[in-house]
Amino acid sequence: MSRRTTVRLGSFAAVAVALWFLPTLQGPIGFPIFYLLFGYTLLFWFAQASSWNMFTGYSGYFSFGQGAFFGVGVYTTGVLAAKRGWPLIAAIPVAGILAAALGLSLGFVVFRLRRLQGEIFALVTLAVAFVVAAIARVSSKIDGGSGIALNDVQLPDFLGTFPSMMFRLGLVIAVLTVFAAATIQHSRLGWGLFSINDDEAVAESLGVPTFRHKMMAFGMSAFFAGLSGAVHAIQISYITIEDVFSIRIPLFVIVMSVLGGMRHWMGPIVGATIIHTLTDRLNRASDLELFGGNVTVSLDHLNDIIIGLLLIVMVLAVKDGLWPRLVDRKWAAAGAFVVGILIARIWAPEMSPIGQFVAGELGAVAVLLPSSAVIDRWRSRGGPSETPDEPTSQPTVGATP
Amino acid sequence: MTLYGQAIISGVLAGGLYAMMSLGVSLSWGVLKIINLAYFSFILLAGYGSYELAANQGWDPFVTVLAVVPVFVIVGGLLQLFFEKVKIGEFESLLVTFGLLIMLESVARSIWSADFRRIPSTENPYASSSLRIGEFAFPTPQLSAFLTAIVIGLLMKYLLDRTYFGKAVRALAQDRDMARAFGVDHRRVAVLLSGLAAATAAIAGVFIAMSQALFPSLAVEWFGIVFPVVILGGLGSTLGALGAGVVIGVVAAIASVTWGPSYAPLATFVILIATLLFRPDGLFTRKASV
Amino acid sequence: MSLLQFDGIHKRFGGVAALGGVSGTLDEGEILGLVGPNGSGKSTLINILSGFAEPNEGRISFAGVDVTDTEAHHRFGAGIARTYQIPRPFSSMTVRHNVAVPLIFGKTKLHPSAATERAMHWLEFAGLASYADQPVSELNLHQLKYLELARALASEPRVLFLDEVLAGLNPTEIEESILMIRRIHDLGISLVIVEHVLRVVNALSTRIVALNQGLVIAEGAPTDVMADPEVVKAYLGSRWKHA
Fold it and tell me: Where are the beta strands (DSSP E) in A97-172?
């Protein structure tokens, strides 16, 4: 093991351990409990986005199936822990296994196709959440259409109070998922997936077992999505088909990963942080009153519009996402972050820490996103449909160990 | 047996609607190489447009087509023009139109809320009327949607098989560069085709507004019907979409009658998977991209 | 015993027969030239032998083992490699990483970090060492074709299919490439070359197989095959269309 790897592993473990003891410090330091739940949700998105990205980001196969795997996880907890009285801790691994089984069976059908594999894969995964939802709705053993309350689930009390427990469960799953994503990226599997992303047929002819690699990565991706869903069931507390299998989960993991960058395990983390903090603030913001109060815009509705717009702009203009740019221009970004926070403090002194963080974040993003990128592309003659060989990302960002 | 007879009739009729909903996606994907999820929001918004005109302005639901369709022809054409401008790739198009779908769904939600919206029966006499033959009923909205779908299908078929425009479209579908080399104005053909595709989506939306309640998340729920139809029918195939729509419609209707309505999506998905497993090659009009 | 042997290979696309029962052998150390007009089935044959496409009928054996149903990546590991007529590099990787992929997954099964180091050896062989950490977009066509060679050689194959490695190159580059092909042959690798430039095939090949409309129409020493009336007719009938 190289020195660099050891240092990285060490710091990764140190961050994980430090976060584990964060809830213990809540009493002595006295920060609001809200931050633990906020932290849990952030960790939940780390796990969801990373699990999605470890397959789709690396291999280039677009999966809309995240909602289905998440949903299988949620309902495993619902059925095993709420209806049958299993302890939550026992239901979580089962959730992962069931989600992986669903992923593997889908992969088995689609990955053997000779034609249009990528496109068909995207659409089948898009449809699968509805089918899983339909099964859950039909079967009274699962949901039967009435939803499941999770008030009486046997929780792992040894992890502390409810917020501490959620935070720690979320942490364990996020750490496992992110660690898996980082490990895959630098492993043979990662190399195989990146070469599949570039040219699957050539990869196969250079010895990459493409079918096996896709199955492995997709299975793992589904597994972690299921684990994370199983914990999140507790957070939702009353689960219904409509909420669990909505398009939000796939939408958010896609936007987070595209924003952060899909070719590096840090990408989804950066993206999840930005999206989660931003949408959290927007959800809490009061309605905007424009034109002297004549027109009221609910920021809550704006949320999805911003997310959709962000996706469009990122896909068209900043294909590699923010992470490679952040690596290149870390000092500029850090400076802009500080400036953003300072402006927020001066302009709105009573703003919450999360609000200030968002202000800093927006400053950093503004520095990293060249505003001219869209215009350049509009003017440029070479688009991806014409010059497929033009590299769209930094070569060193790919499968670099 | 009457139950099943009626189920088959409703299935066939619904199939026409499914075909109209799918035609845009199928043509766009098969010919323009753009997987356009925005058509789902076109269907939804066209439905809401028709609802507004019928419920609040007192238009006859059928007549709303005249106002709604031109709007979406323009919207569809402009969208394609944008795609041509930025030279969008196939997977990019999937993501970009997904973003668009989310935005438009959110717009619909902020205008019409998440509640059910249905044209009141006073303004929409067709919802409860039907043609009766013996013991079977042919509800007016579904029957007219079916007949419209057949007319549109045949018109499209004629347009694609017999006209210069159709030749240009087929040339594009087969080999983009070659078509360009032979002087096909790629952009104009694509914009025109996209406008037509959006028109069929808008017509489908009008019929949906006529026959059922609207709510914003419908757009996403249609995935489960449209994609099986597109894949079963074959990419870019007009009559294929019509046939596949009927197959999916009948299967869904029979599943509903036999086991309950919740089983319908399950049945269509089983068909989709079975198609992919057993007849993947025979169903596509396009050659391997590898 | 032949290194590579194929019997009665049939391939149909739709109703059209691309190959109508092709048999042949490749011996250790040979340079086999595969010639024929466009659409004669050369590329299809290479695709089938390298595991890229499945034949409708026929058997293939490699080093005495039946590989008809062996997947392409296993054939590569066993020692069958190929290049593409139009270079297909991994466009988001550096030149060096392109060569590392076959070292990781081919016969050598190296660890990624070892593979990245070992890749330099083959980049030096192909004269691309100075481009090692550049993106592939920095390479011109000639260099991309050499990159194809470096990737194929990295796993130390026993047979290498060269699909029109000279197409699109200028005369100087063609001369260099011919030297390169000889150097590859000197490594002890048996070659199958598909080429339009007949002069080159004549000069390089130890034996030639001529295909036309999916059938073998002549086989033997270069001079004999080129003099064969069937071959002359096949070429004169169609070569001008794609010159």
Answer: 148-149
Task: Supply φ then ψ for residue A110, to 5 degrees.
Answer: -85, -40
Verify whether the Cβ–Cβ distance B228 to A127 is below 8 Å: yes
Cα–Cα distance measured from residue A206 to residue A201, given in angstroms and rounded to the nearest whole number: 9
pLDDT of res. B280: 61
pLDDT over threshold 90, residue A384: no
Does B92 contact A at CB distance below 8 Å? yes
Interchain pair C77, A201: CB under 8 A:
no
pLDDT at residue number A134: 84
Can you state the angle between helices B64-86 and B186-211, rounded to 10 degrees? 140
Q: List residues bridging with A296 in a β-sheet.
A: A289
Dihedral sign of CA atoms A110, A111, A112, A115 in order: positive
Element (H, E) at C208: strand C207-212
Q: Read off the tokens for A398.
A: 């790919």
* Distance linking the first and last C-alpha atoms of chain C: 38
What does residue C40 show for φ and ψ, rounded to 5 degrees?
-85, -10
CA distance A280 to A267: 20
Strand order in the sheet with C57-62: C16-26, C4-13, C57-62, C65-66
The list of chain B residues with pLDDT below 70 reads 1, 280-290
CA end-to-end distance (rounded Å), chain B: 49
Domains of chain C: 1-79+157-243 (3.40.50.300), 88-156 (no CATH)
Helix (H, G, I), strand (E, B) or coil at A290: strand
Q: Are B17 and B148 in contact (CB under 8 A)?
A: no
Domain that holds residue B207: 20-217
**Which residues of chain A neighbour C139 with C-beta distances below 8 Å?**
none
> Is B173 a member of any domain?
yes
Domain boundaries, chain A: 32-286
- The pLDDT confidence band at residue A370, using thresholds 50, 70 and 90, is low
Closest chain B residue by Cα to residue A134 = B262
> What letter would DSSP give residue A280?
H
Q: Do C91 and A187 touch (CB under 8 A)?
A: no
Give C143-172 pLDDT, tens digit per residue.
999 999 999 999 899 999 999 888 888 889
Give the list of residues 6+ apart from residue B82 with CB closer than 8 angstroms, or none. Answer: none
Would you call B125 exposed, middle or buried from its count of C-beta atoms within 10 A (0-12, 13-18, 19+)? exposed
B238 occurs within a structural domain:
no
Confidence of residue A246 (pLDDT cuts 50, 70, 90): confident
Query: Does residue B210 lie in a domain region?
Result: yes
Q: Is the dihedral of CA B222, B225, B228, B232 positive or negative?
A: negative
Count of domains for chain B: 1
Say whether residue A401 is in contact with chain C using an 8 A CB cutoff: yes
Q: Which residue(s) pair with C161 in the sheet?
A: C82, C192
Residue closest to A367 by CA, chosen among A390, A395, A396, A339: A339
Is B223 inside any structural domain?
no
What does the radius of gyration of chain C's CA atoms come to, in whole angstroms?
A: 18
* Contact assignment for C92 to A398 by CB distance below 8 Å: yes
Partner-chain contact C73 A205, CB within 8 Å: yes
- Token pair in block for residue B232: 């079963």
Fold entry, domain A32-286: ABC transporter involved in vitamin B12 uptake, BtuC (1.10.3470)
Name the β-bridge partners of B131: B138
Average pLDDT, chain B: 85
Query: Which helix (DSSP H) or strand (DSSP E) does residue C210 occupy?
Result: strand C207-212
Does residue C198 surpass a pLDDT of 60?
Answer: yes
Cβ atoms A76, A91 nearer than 8 A: yes
Bridging pattern class, strands C190-194 and C159-163: parallel
Dist CA C137 CA C98 (whole Å): 12
In the block, residue with structure tokens 């249609």: B222
φ, ψ for residue B139 (rounded to 5)?
A: -60, 140
